[in-house]
Amino acid sequence: MIMNDAEIIESLAKSKGLISDETIMERHPYVSDIAEEEERMEKQEEKQLEQFNVAMKEKENNNSMI
């Protein structure tokens, strides 16, 4: 069966929870280095958590001013 990248990605997205994330990454057409992609994802998650924590502190500070 011939599939284009969009079809492959859609199929992989639907497989989330049915197969491991590592297998999904191995099969993803845009990922050539799984270890590097995992590192990038980890950094992204850390940055998002940091941004969330900053936003929560700002919200707390704003609420304490009321």
Q: How would you describe this structure to a colleague?
A:
The chain has 66 residues and is mostly helical. The chain has 2 domains: 1-31, no CATH class; 33-66. Helices cover 73% and strands 0% of the residues. The chain has 3 helices and no strands. It has helices at 5-14, 21-27, 34-64. The radius of gyration is 18 Å and the shape is elongated. The model has no long low-confidence stretch (mean pLDDT 93).
Short structural description:
This protein is 73% helix and 0% strand. With 66 residues, it is mainly α. The mean pLDDT is 93.
Short descriptors:
66 residues; 73% helix; elongated
Order of helices and strands: HHH
Head-to-tail CA distance between termini = 62 Å
Number of strand elements: 0
- Which whole number gives the mean pLDDT? 93
Radius of gyration: 18 Å
Q: Specify the overall morphology.
A: elongated
Tell me the number of structural domains.
Answer: 2
* Total DSSP helices: 3
What's the helical proportion of residues?
over 70%
Poorly predicted residue ranges: none
Which class do the helix and strand fractions yield?
mainly alpha
What fraction of the residues are assigned to beta strands by DSSP? under 5%
Main β sheet profile: none
InterPro entries: Portal_protein_SPP1_Gp6-like (IPR021145)
Keywords: Coiled coil
Pfam families: SPP1_portal
